[in-house]
Predict the structure.
Amino acid sequence: MATATVRITAKEKDDAVEHIFYELQMLLDCRALFENAVRELNQATTKRDKAFWSAGQNAFLEGFLLHFRNLKQFLNNQKFATDVKASHYAQNWTPDSKLSDANEDIRVNKKLAHLTYERATSARGWNPEEMEQRICEVFQKFLAKADVSYYSLFAGCRTKLSVYGY
């Protein structure tokens, strides 16, 4: 069965940059909010505050993982023909080995999209800081390789990265 070729217009590519920026923004902000929720949970003294910050910690971790997965698939040129891919903006873009852990993909998917027995028994520890550093490093490589015609469209991404020290 042949796969249909999808033609993406220049306008569609330009418009999609807003969504790429959103994914990056939410990844960075959710990680910062997660770290804040961890600190607040550790300082909480009442049951109500502990429950609140525990829920916040979980929500921000899930948000981080969702946007991590979306950016990882973008940078790895993955999934469906209609998905936005890094190679649409950087002609010679190839996935970076820093984002090639298939076990990580499975683990993220189990955490976010599936209520499975594997989810219940898998290791609970996540390292959002390390995950963020890896994906931001690869994202910066992508920005350096993106076609010059997209430079101004990705200005928000460069600014957001610099705000977070990248």
